[in-house]
Amino acid sequence: MRGKTGKNAWMSVAGTASYEFRMQIRRKSLWIVMAIFIAWAVAQFRFVYFQTPVSLSLTQVTAGWATMLQAIVPIAVGIMLADRLPRDRRTKVEELLETLPASSGGRLFGKYLGATLATIIPVFLTYAVVMIYIAISRGEFMAIPLGLLSFAAINLPGLFFVAAFSVSCPVLLWVPLYQFLFVGYWLWGALLSPNGPVPTLSGTWLNPLGEFMANGFFGARTLYANDASAWEGVVSVSLLLGLGALALLCAHGYLVWQRARQ
Amino acid sequence: MMSNSEWVGYEFRRIGKIGLMTPLLIVAGFGIVAVPMALLGREKGQIANLLSSVPEVYLPIAAGLAAAAIVAREPALDLHLTLRTHYRTTALRRLALLVGWTALASVLWASVLQILGLWTWPEPFLVAQLGWLVPLLWFVSAAALLALLLRSQVASGAILGAVWLFQNLLGGLMLTLDWLRPFYLFGMDSYSPQAEAWFDERYWLDSWLTLGIMALAMALCTVLVLSKSEFLASGGDA
Predict the structure, then answer these.
(1) What is this model's ipTM?
(2) Is there a contact between B65 and A176 (Cβ–Cβ < 8 Å)?
């Protein structure tokens, strides 16, 4: 019986994820928005990369490109995911979905997984294209595996963290209010210097730019985390993923409570 | 048929408590942030700078995000096509209420800061209010136009977020380039009494005029797109 329930939960995650993935990746607006953000990130990287007088090591370049992309693109990822859950209510399919055998938790997690992966695809493609360019222009083909590792360690935890909050918070918050709080959070909690007058989270392990991973794992110079150990990188990854999971659990709990009251 | 002013009450109630509370919550939030800053011994000038930046840097983007939601979503648009009042009129009324409400919050906040001696913008007080009015109109008209053209509230919000973040991060760079300088939205936030000589009345006038004309052009385009309500009724973003 237990095995059957587990299989059912897994089927509902996989099924929802595949539908949500296709729904998100086929949105024209996703690609338009991503193109704007990516153009900005690439222009900034190009500027820094060609302006730096000293020749950078390959790890510096791959980790540097990962953190630079991470400073800008998560805004688009977070905002483009904010309407996924309210959309079910708007299009009036929420109650219909309730009649399915798929569990509500499985559907929520599937929605998160599918929509997030689809939103990250343009980011990953851009990251990969620049990595291939670096590999060819420097003649160092280690850039490809190193780039993949950097993306997985530096970008993915922060992106999944942001995505989890963007899927969960609109359960409670009005979407424009959440979007405002999110954009403000990004400037304050990710980009603002910890040495400025306003107290911020950007110098802590909760830094979503992946700076502790970039510095701790790859030894790259970053803005706010320059003598991090590899363990601090591990703590940062765990905190980001753990808090994301907590946000999803809270959203699930709230939805179950809300349904029970109906 | 509704009388000329009767719509105001209906539309106000339609915005809902959260919508109406949003600018007030933002202002209150910054007021609360100022407390730990003061407790940590930050200078009064730094706290005053942060509080004074609220109407220029934070309220306009919040209004813009709300504007995108207002024009992109009308659940009964098909029904609205049958009414005597054009959808364009209804949408513009809602946008006007949003701008008016945010403007009221901004001017009240500025006045409170002025009374408390925490207002850091250049004198005269009344003229300086253009410092938040222009970005407010810019963000609201850009958001409305983008939401209509992309048929998506979140896509409009994301592009607005990109503009806002770009201006916040690279404002210093924008101010050093002559051709980009008038497009900088947060001039008052970067102002300090020791600012460079070009950072004077001529700069404000130039910037407000440029951004004001942009806002007007985007608002006119919004009106044009809103006139095509059948186009709007044909579905939106997935």
Answers:
(1) 0.88
(2) yes
The type of residue at B23 is P
Residues in CB range of A2: below 8 A, 6 or more apart: none
What pTM value is reported for the model?
Answer: 0.90
Element (H, E) at B114: helix B87-116
Q: Where are the alpha helices (DSSP H) in chain A?
A: 2-25, 28-51, 58-72, 74-81, 84-90, 94-98, 104-138, 143-150, 156-168, 175-185, 211-218, 230-261
CA-CA distance, B17 to B14, in Å (whole number)? 9
pLDDT given for residue A1 in this prediction: 45
User: What tokens were used for A174?
Assistant: 């009005």
Query: Do A131 and A147 form a contact (C-beta atoms < 8 A)?
Result: yes
The pLDDT tens digits for A101-118 are 778 888 899 999 999 999
Query: Is A172 at the interface with chain B, CB within 8 A?
Result: no
Residue B184 neighbours by CB distance under 10 Å: 22
Contact B165 A27 (CB under 8 A): no
Q: How far is B202 from chain A (nearest CA, A)?
A: 30
Q: Which residues of B touch A82 (CB under 8 A)?
A: 154, 157
Q: How many CA atoms lie within 13 A of B182 on its CB side?
A: 13
Select from A37, A40, A82 the Cβ nearest to the Cβ of B154: A82
